[in-house]
């Protein structure tokens, strides 16, 4: 009993501990479930499970609303008070958010087997935790004394937009109206995840770079941040209105902004410090993925017979290459720094990160290269297997840190 009490005390000692732990477990579970489903559909295991939710939409929900958000909230609960010299979020508050979202996620998994009513209850609990998180972060935002709150405002608004997308998914499950599903998917990517990860990258990558690279000129143009977020929102609205073929211009502009920032932030120089390089590599995928989206849009516009000619390659370059790689990079840095450990990325974590890059390539290549399209199922399973293997090893390395005391003896 004392051991369990001590674990609980350590998990609640800082916001990132419990939420990163939940996100790490979810990073394993969601891909484990997805690989199991793919294996059944591709005939590698006997029979195909009859899920209560269409698998591809369940996969999208689990990734957008129950994997990335744990890491995002763990980061924001930590950084909002630091960014703005605001009031600290209390343990009972962030632990409540974590427990609601964990319980909801587990019910969602159970509902995939047991029926839609359990799924609805699970989404409802996740939504309650999400709503609580929005209230907590806006409270810090509105009461903090700092004058510069631009990054915080953008992150908070994006989180609120994600809450609308989550609510829309719940309405879709209840009503089966595809309008709600479409809004949930587009809002989750273009109004929530991309704006919030771009905002965090804009705030943190040049800051981290300036701390370790000599003679570094910190470049953080806010005009480009607003432009990139605007292009993301534009893409989402065009998707919702059925005019995705016209999104290529904004996509190309966003790609140009991202590639420019990669250059001025010191992409090549970052490889001298691995813990910095992983962030730069992850951000580089934003430019690549948006170039693919732009090409997809141009094909759709000029050659409508080749609609979706790149399949889901642009989306997975964005979601695995940019979002997931950034999560691994940021979570590794936060975990090391907030546990009193040296800010050094060891060989194991470095190669696990490389593994994620391989998973990204394996997932997108069959959609881009027609000659290997017939091998797509094998590539998809290989990508899922590499993600699962890398995340299992990353989890085994980092999870115990979350329930152990800091090595430097400090609180938090």
Automatic annotation (TrEMBL):
Keywords: Membrane, Transmembrane, Transmembrane helix. InterPro entries: NnrS. The chain crosses the membrane at residues 20-36, 56-82, 94-112, 118-141, 153-175, 187-205, 217-240, 246-268, 275-295, 315-336, 348-365, 371-396. It comes from the Bacteria. The keyword rRNA-binding does not apply. The keyword Hydrolase does not apply. This is Uncharacterized protein involved in response to NO.
């Amino acid at each position: 009993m004392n051991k369990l009490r001590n674990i609980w005390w350590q998990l609640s000692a800082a916001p990132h501990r419990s939420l990163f732990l939940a996100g790490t477990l979810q990073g394993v579970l969601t891909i484990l479930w997805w690989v199991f489903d793919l294996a059944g559909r591709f005939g590698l295991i006997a029979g195909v499970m009859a899920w209560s939710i269409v698998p591809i939409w369940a996969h999208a929900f689990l990734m957008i609303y129950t994997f990335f958000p744990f890491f995002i909230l763990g980061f924001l609960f930590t950084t909002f008070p630091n960014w703005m010299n605001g009031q600290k979020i209390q343990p009972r508050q962030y632990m409540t958010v974590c427990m609601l979202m964990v319980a909801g996620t587990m019910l969602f998994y159970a509902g995939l087997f047991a029926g839609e009513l359990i799924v609805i209850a699970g989404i409802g609990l996740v939504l309650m935790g999400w709503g609580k998180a929005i209230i907590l972060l806006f409270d810090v935002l509105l009461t903090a004394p700092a004058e510069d709150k631009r990054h915080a405002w953008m992150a908070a608004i994006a989180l609120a937009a994600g809450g609308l997308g989550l609510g829309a998914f719940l309405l879709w499950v209840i009503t089966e109206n595809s309008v709600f599903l479409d809004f949930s998917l587009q809002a989750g990517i273009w109004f929530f995840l991309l704006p919030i990860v771009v905002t965090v990258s804009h705030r943190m990558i040049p800051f981290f770079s300036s701390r370790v690279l000599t003679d570094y000129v910190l470049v953080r143009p806010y005009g480009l941040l607003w432009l990139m977020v605007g292009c993301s929102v534009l893409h989402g609205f065009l998707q919702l209105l059925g005019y995705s073929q016209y999104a290529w211009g904004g996509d190309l502009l966003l790609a140009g902004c991202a590639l420019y920032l990669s250059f001025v932030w010191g992409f090549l120089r970052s490889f001298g410090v691995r813990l910095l390089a992983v962030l730069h590599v992850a951000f580089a995928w934003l430019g690549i993925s948006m170039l693919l989206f732009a090409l997809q849009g141009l094909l759709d516009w000029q050659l409508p017979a080749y609609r979706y000619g790149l399949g889901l390659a642009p989306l997975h370059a964005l979601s695995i290459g940019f979002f997931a790689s950034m999560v691994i990079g940021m979570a590794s840095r936060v975990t090391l720094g907030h546990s009193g450990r040296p800010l050094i990325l060891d060989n194991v974590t470095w190669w696990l990160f490389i593994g994620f890059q391989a998973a990204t390539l394996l997932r997108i290549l069959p959609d881009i290269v027609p000659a290997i399209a017939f091998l797509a199922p094998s590539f998809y399973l290989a990508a899922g297997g590499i993600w699962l293997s890398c995340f299992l090893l990353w989890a085994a390395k980092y999870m115990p840190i979350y329930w152990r005391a800091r090595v430097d003896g400090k609180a938090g």
